[in-house]
Design a protein that fits this description.
Elements: H1 3-6, H2 9-16, H3 19-30, H4 32-44, H5 49-77, H6 92-122, H7 126-130, H8 136-156, H9 162-197, H10 203-214
Helix pairs in contact: 3-5, 4-5, 5-6, 6-8, 6-9, 9-10
Length: 215
């Protein structure tokens, strides 16, 4: 926090009263309710196992983000210098949480792209894909690759270098753009495929191409 900001009356107020930590703690704790609800829905929905796996891991990665946010709030509540953080590296535990937050964010974005690609593959032959076996080698390889990618990212975050932070921010923005592009293509392709299979395919086949539009 810049020196001028840390001396402002607004900063002093929030530093003396735990407004932000409590709001942050409450909001992120409540966020676990839709996570559990989504996990229950995904388990009961007639999804192909590849899709179910990716969505479940994606949901749990969001759970990891919310868990890190809860840890941030608890750390701020127990901070001896006040309830407002003055640095992302002090205490050092905050810096580790910051690394985990970036890692989970990149992991979520990567899984969203993977889900879009999986749905595009599914609509090529919905019936055959729906009854196919779970592609565990591909799913495990995907998960391991994404974990290694994210570990590489957090290893690079080793200081408060503003240039590197800008690079990380630009990469995250670029990832979100790629997600939007992949998602838009997948939704359009699913809609076209669904219209073509209307009245010509089983419910399970049509659900393969309909689910992504609903989700």
């Amino acid at each position: 926090v810049p020196f001028s900001m840390s001396n402002s009356s607004l900063f002093v107020f929030f530093n003396e009263y735990p407004v932000f930590p409590l709001v942050y703690l409450f909001a992120n704790s409540i966020a676990f309710l839709p996570i559990f609800a989504l996990l229950a829905i995904v388990q009961s929905a007639p999804l192909q196992n590849n899709c179910r796996y990716i969505i479940c891991v994606w949901i749990m990665s969001y759970g990891a983000k919310f868990t890190v946010n809860v840890c941030f709030a608890i750390l701020d509540l127990t901070n001896t210098s006040g309830y407002m953080p003055v640095s992302i590296t002090k205490p050092y535990l905050r810096f580790h949480l910051y690394q985990l937050h970036v890692m989970s964010t990149v992991f979520c974005s990567s899984l969203e792209i993977a889900l879009s690609l999986e749905r595009l593959i599914a609509i090529i032959d919905p019936r055959r894909y729906h009854i196919s076996r779970t592609a565990w080698p591909c799913l495990i390889a995907l998960t391991v690759s994404l974990v290694r990618l994210n570990l590489h990212v957090i290893v690079k975050i080793d200081n408060e270098n503003n240039v590197f932070h800008c690079i990380i921010l630009c990469n995250l923005i670029d990832a979100k753009i790629r997600i939007f592009e992949a998602g838009s293509i997948a939704v359009y392709a699913c809609r076209v495929r669904y219209e073509k299979t209307y009245g010509k395919a089983t419910l399970a086949e049509r659900y393969q191409v309909l689910f992504f539009q609903i989700f």
